[in-house]
Records
---
Amino acid sequence: LFFPQVARWEHKTRALSRVFGSPHAACYCLGATILMLNGVRSHCFTEAMKSQPKLDGLDCHCAYYLGLAILAAGTVFVISSFLALGFTGTFLGDYFGILMEAKVTSFPFSVLDNPMYWGSTAVYLGWALM
């Protein structure tokens, strides 16, 4: 909920760009904030998973390796999305007026419309199974 609201506010007002002196500096600051909040979210998720009882059916090597495979596939989608979009493309640069020259159609966007979202979902699903 946080970063889409901040990005829309920036798009309407350009306030962050003025405060930081440039749209690039403002976008990098928002990206760093998003990354820190992601660390908090991951920590909270890990603590929640540790406190939950395990299902007997998932307490086996098969479930662990399935979770690991799903986590690995998700990680590939997240990292390849980031590499295809770059930092400003990943962290809402378009709201700061930083546009890419062309639409990205290479992998992973050739496979999925929203590979960053699907990849993140797969990471957390795999983590939960593990």
---
Amino acid sequence: HERLSRYDSTGESAIDKPLGRTSSYTRREARLASLNKQEQDTTAKDYKKMYTEALQENEKLKSRLQDSKQELVKIRSQLEKVAQRQDRMSERSTVLETEKREKQVLEKRVTDMEEEIKQAPTLRFRCGYQP
């Protein structure tokens, strides 16, 4: 009976049993601690990875922003050139209109002068002027 009382059905002695529980508890705690450490390492690596990805994304966005700024400068330059051309065309149009009016005035003066010349012989005769 002594033998049976010292050993249970698993074959462990009654004296080893508390130690077995302690050692299995210790092993379990060690395993949990190891898993927690791995999880923390993984989490830390994930944060590092996320930070690296965020930096890369920021660099891409900065590059795109710079490209957009350069394109905006080009477009503004082109717009300024078009506006200058339109101003010149407007000025030309104004000049042309002025020249057109001046030409009309001069043509009217020429016509009036021609009429005066046609009437001049009769005027000379009336005034008593004879060449």
---
Amino acid sequence: MDQGSIARILRQVSGGEDEIQQLQKALLDYLDENTETDASLVFSRKFYIAQWFRDTTMETEKAIKSQKDEDSSEGTHHAKDVETTGQIMHRAESRKTFLRSIIKTAPSQFSTLKMNSDTVDYEDACLIVRYLASMRSFAQSFDIYLTQ
């Protein structure tokens, strides 16, 4: 991955969100800007929103399950684990709120949410997609699958 380009995109995208959320917004804005030239981008945009919402939900469920497993196996409650789970829950809720706000936005309001059209081009969009895909659990455990 080209970390320099990712850092440049993050600097260009405004917002106080976390890194993943900024990249998601940049990609969604790029897809929205180009829907007039390629109708399939409307489907892509909806697919990414749905997939990210699902990933966030799964991440939350895994955090809750892992905390329950640790609590039952050790019998004690660790403040560090609670803090980590709390942070995951907070981040998940902020991502879900962001995605809900994108879903609820009417097509006529997209122009008010758009950033400068020169912020993300096709190559940057491809890089963002690869970067976000590499953050998914399957991509992170791909070596284990190959080894098995």
